[in-house]
Amino acid sequence: WVGSMSKFQEEVSKTLILSLICISDCWADRSPLHEAAAQGRLLALKTLLTQGVNVNLVTINRVSSLHEACLGGHVACAKALLENGAHVNAVTVHGATPLFNACCSGSVGCVSVLLEFGAKAQLEVHLASPIHEAVKRGHTQCMEILLANNVNIDQELPRLGTPLYVACTFQQVDCVKKLLDLGASVDQGQWLDTPLHAAARQSSVEVIDLLTSYGANLKRRNSQGKRALDVVAPKSRMEKALLRHRGPSDLSQLCRLCIRKCLGRGCLQSVHKLQLPEPLKRFLLYQ
Fold first, then answer.
1. Residue 258 sits in which domain range?
2. C-alpha–C-alpha distance, residues 272 and 137, integer Å
3. pLDDT (0 to 100) of residue 70
4. Is there a smaller number of Cβ atoms within 10 Å at the N or the C end of the chain?
5. How many C-beta atoms surround the C-beta of residue 195 within 10 A?
């Protein structure tokens, strides 16, 4: 009985080890094509494809070679796979597409080639969002390419919020500035929590100054009934920054916000068409 129990425990251990292998992106069932794509070995990858290896072979987690190439930022490998029929919108069990992986790596080249081959830039809310991933990691160029391909700049995901909210949460200042320039809603975050709440929690004075200069409402309350001022530590730099912006805006700032609101999301392009002196155009564009 002791011997059989020991054998049972051994089998359980083996099962657990196999399960762990499967969970950790299934390295055990990765093919040579996956390895070549992940390492950017273009010649080896092309050789395997010439030999008839299935370009859409996936692991148990449905990770394809194209996913691997994009995660590594290997543009030439990604293009070769796509030219040989790789599924451009393949989805892993975790909801990741090759485009998501390209945004994760910050590869502008991979993002561009995927879109050229028909990748969907705007995905359903249950899938991993490329633009949210790009913003989270501070990959501004990837974010801009996606927005140029009609991705909703204010897409709000249940667990992440809007791209601007993510940018504020991860203190990606360049992304915050670019999103605001391109017309992102300054007060739309994660349900009632605004980007200003996120910036206040992260102790980011620079982001607080940016948001308030683009018209963030300091009086907005979240689901707990708290304003951004209520979530910062007393007498902290963040409190001073918020108090500095609490008073009424000057006339020039109010005019700028009013004009930008009238121009809408196309503000960046529309301002240049206005018959105004260049200094005024730069003022409207925060330059």
1. 252-287
2. 31
3. 98
4. N
5. 34
